[in-house]
């Protein structure tokens, strides 16, 4: 007999994640915290399953819960089923190489000062692939965030679950308006107002250690974000530590100079992916383009 029209005797599927979390933690409260639901929502979800199945899944006593034998069996099956679904979704996400959209997570300063000005050229060269740019920094969860790749400054521990592919080394040094250097600072960085960022507060100290120069400023000013400190340097408000590639366009256009040259910071920019970039043609295309765009940046690190 055909099973095509067989009716499945399944519990309410929408309630299963709540049950699985409650069963795993042996606590409705902890399940509610994990799933960002209320204790009552977890309790109702479990009650729906128990009503449909006609058995108790938990023993409830003195505000504590324990799994029954039936609950243990359902937990094992539910956990396995959710794991299979999770792997299937991840596999689909990894191999959706025919999608016309590549979702890229990028650090805000890098995106605004280097990547975005170049995306028009990417689109002209690759009209069939659109970049969906998300601005974010620090640790990334590609699957949870719905991103295909992430570009990060590798200054934190990146999970071993990801593939990290080096893009370029970071160089940094003091940057300022060319007229300020000649006419106001008298070619002495200690005469400058040093511009700091609260998101990278050790930039000047790191540069001093790397360059071997022990100098101090006449004054200092702090900004909430690195982007603002660099823009302040462009606007002649002082001298900032400018890392490549964030100041590359300003150096090329003459808006800023790096009078003392630049030194390697010891940090690399990396592309973070679920699989090696060459496995997905969209990611391979984007990766190759990034490398092409970065060619020649090292020429900006020489003293002016």
TrEMBL record:
Belongs to the LysR transcriptional regulatory family. This is LysR substrate-binding domain-containing protein. It comes from Thalassospira aquimaris. The keyword ATP-binding does not apply. Coiled coil: none annotated. The keyword Transcription regulation applies. InterPro entries: LysR-type_TF_proteobact-type, LysR_HTH_N, LysR_subst-bd, WH-like_DNA-bd_sf, WH_DNA-bd_sf. It comes from the Bacteria. Keywords: DNA-binding, Transcription, Transcription regulation. Residues 11-68 form the HTH lysR-type domain.
